[in-house]
Amino acid sequence: MELLSCFSKKNHKVLKTGIYIALIAGGFGALLSALMGYLISQQGGYDDKTLFWHQWLGIALALLSFLGWGIKSNRLSFRFLKSRAIIVLLVVLMFITGHLGGNLTHGSDYLTAYAPNFVKKILGYEASYPLIIPKSLDSVRVFDHLIQPILNAKCVQCHGENKVNGGLKLSSIESISKGGEGGAVIVKGQPYESELLLRCTLPQEHKKFMPPKGTPLSFSEMKLLEWWILQGASTDMKLTTTIVPTEIHQFLMRDFGVDTKTKPFYDRIQVPPIEEDLLLEFSNVGWKATRLSVNHQLLNVKLFSDSLSIKHLEVLQKAKDHVFCLDLSGIRTLTDDMVKVVVQLPHITHLKVEKTGIKDSGVKLLVGLQHLEVLNLYGTSVTNESLMAISDIPSLKRVYLWNTKVTPESIVNFHELNPKIEVIGIEYDHQIKD
Description:
- The chain is of the alpha/beta class and 434 residues long.
- It has 3 domains: 2-120, no CATH class; 137-256, no CATH class; 268-433, Alpha-Beta Horseshoe (Leucine-rich repeat, LRR (right-handed beta-alpha superhelix)).
- It is 46% helix and 6% strand.
- The chain contains 18 helices and 7 strands.
- The protein has helices at 2-7, 12-41, 48-72, 83-106, 117-122, 142-154, 173-178, 195-201, 219-230, 246-256, 265-268, 276-285, 310-318, 336-342, 360-365, 384-390, 408-417, 426-433, and strands at residues 287-291, 299-303, 323-327, 350-352, 374-376, 398-400, 422-424.
- Strands 1-2-3-4-5-6-7 form a 7-stranded mixed β-sheet.
- Helix 17 links the parallel strand 6 and strand 7.
- Helix 2 (12-41) packs antiparallel against helix 3 (48-72) and helix 17 (408-417) packs across helix 18.
- The protein starts with a helix and ends with a helix.
- The relative contact order is 0.05.
- The chain crosses the membrane at residues 20-40, 52-71, 83-102.
- This is Cytochrome C Planctomycete-type domain-containing protein.
């Protein structure tokens, strides 16, 4: 209005009256705002420096409004002060005070938080990108990729770097562990004794319900928080190093697209494409080598011979990373030295040595196959000694022991010690039924 009054002689008086009213009303409004702001500041949790300047600049804004009204209405007169200079100063003060108020309530980045990345870069701020959860389960850290984003979205506005209600910061694991004015907010292993979770589960009308404003935590977010605390609230916790309950698995799959079900070994390993010439070489020496499927480079390998020679082993070693299933059934001349070559095939999960000459000493060598899941020893001369040896194969799921020298009693004892390993054997089944 002051600017318009300079160029409009016709409406000068009307505009001048409007300026009087705006200045006096603005002065009282600023005083009322300063009073309300002072009362709110007594709750604590605000950055002291920002609060100091916001408070005193707000008071100065109110006083300057009254001073401007006095000069503009000729009730006050100062040689060195002009009403227009006061109004310009009021506008500047209003912008600065309002900006500081925004910093207090919304954080120092409230003007740039949702700005395009190119604008942030121009202004010197770090560009932000949406959280991307790693595709590899081994890389997913529960706190960094699941818990902290929940806290950032629902809690950090009041418990962050710029506003610290109750002395509690939730912007990092260090500040969370430190707690607030009321003490620790997490009791590791005990979610429902942890204030961080309890406040989120209160009825929304409760005065201590968190967050008091905005969107509350969803049921799945609360369950994730509960699960994390129950598991020890560790920053090192990974999805692959802890048991994921079915309910949590469903939440992760639905909300984050994260599948925590363990994939088969053949889906987890990557090997280079196998050359067609090598497949032909397998065939030429008596092996039958076939891919698991069109999309897999792993091989099912079976020997169509009753003896294993050096040339067979040489070809096998050339494709050692590609052999997934190996069938040596019927080779009565299978020696420990030959088994040592087999153990050099790192990706074998299925090994058939039924009706072969393998001995207890050879079975002990198989402990080196860290991914072996199925072992067929049917029709061999192995004894109880072999049974004890295979218990050290961490990945073993099933073993066939028909027509061996392993006793039913030792099989029962083995099953009690290794319940996750399925033992297939007629005598063993009969013993269990008894």
